[in-house]
Model the fold of this input.
Amino acid sequence: MRKIIKFLAIVFLSSGLQAGLMAQSNSYSGNLSGNMEIDFQHYTPDAKIGADTVREKIGFQSFANLIYRNKNLEAGLRYEVFAPPLQGIDADFQGHGIAHRYLTYRHDLIEITAGHFYEQFGSGLTLRSYNEWALGYDNAIDGVRIKLKPVKGITIKGLVGKHRNYWRNSPGTIRGVDGEIYTNQLLPFLKDKKTKIILGGSFVSRFQEDKSISYKIPENVGTYAGRAKIIHGGLRFKGEYAHKINDPSSINNFIYKPGKALLLEGTYSKRGYGLTVTAKRIDNMSFKSDYNATGIPMDINFLPSLSVQSTYELANIYPYATQPTGEMGIQGSFYYMFKRNSTLGGKYGTRFTIDYTRIQDIEREAPTDTTYVGEPGTMGYDSDFFQWSSLTFFENLNIGFDKKINSDWKLHLEYASITYDPLIKGDQGADKVNAHLGIADIEYSLKMRQSIRLELEHIFTDQENMHEDDFSAGDWAMALVEYNVKDYFFAVKDLYNYRNPSPGISDIHYFNVAAGVTKGPNRIAISYGRQREGINCVGGVCRPEPAANGLKITITSNF
Done:
């Protein structure tokens, strides 16, 4: 409780400080801003959904960001409290303190940051540091970063530091440099050309002392990448290729095979329609600032997912997690707007979307120095760069339909066909899931800033062999009614799991009621009820969420 009181005192003090600074604005040129969030949950044991009794019945976590700006200077800090973390967030976050602090100086030529910072080179294949509070993910780099713009059209970045590892720093040191050239700004004869070309490249290395007693671990591991982006009217193309030298680690079972990654994307759009095609290949590209690390902490690079990101609950019941040890995939997205006053467009027009994703394993063969694929201490395997494996990790066909019927009614319809292999979450021996999902989202607007929204979802599944106590198996139906009036909302939801083949966990209702209010930059949301066990994913990075029952409160504020 003392930790919580201390945190709230800091927040109130910062708010008072901001008010005082604003009152003296005539003689003070700086600016203080920030944001905060409080997440509170009370847990009630519920054996029927697998919500076990927890030692501490309350989970509490919160942060407050303070950012001060004055001319060329910017300074910031973030205070965090985990007392303890919510269920599903790693218990190593337990504690409180200043988790993020930095000082930045900016000028036309140079920008220097000392302290914690987030950075991304290109698509992130060599380096990406970022924060995702909902996942309990923060791989901020604690060190020094320099950005240079020596001439118009050229940007150079350099950095050195260590990852945040909960309340410590990573054992490995990260060093990186990135350069980007905007040719149309650099070369005068290309300035007015319709075709725009941007070229870039990066190099990132990790130094970590070899303390292994079983293998000889390279103390310096480097990865490099080249990228290009070409824009011509509505046609866009971008591609990036990355290569990593041998990096035996806990993720790849200590093999010495180099890593490779290729990401290609092409887009064509005109008024009323657009098409995007993306392809990727990843082979042994896990890159962490600790070769012994597993899970999501201390990732140096980022391997993007091709799966469609959805806000609907049952669309995320079988999420895809990127496989850093190897995968090949392709995704195509197409949308078309039927014109207003046409047969299919009606008075307000109609939007039609279709997305297709297919992700498979890469083909592997035992190398000449071993008898089986992936033997630790060897090259691990040979793999043809363009050879697809017959093992399909994930396949998704998604069709969407958005229609504004009149000034009061809006309709969204969606169908998805999903093939999902539990192997991607480490579930050995379970058969693939074949699922069909239907969604109807209907909204009716009333007078006086009021609206009613009805959301209906249903997913049919087919899975013959599965592990016991799988709370995601079977068929699911969901109904939600939401009422909005001015700044307030009220919602009632029932998520129903039936035909689950696991004994004793079929025909379960996950009731939940929620309410909230938004006033300017402040929002309070309260919910009570059951939460299903599952996987929470953002951009292909996933963490498991245990089943829970109880009260949850979230408060967010910006100032």
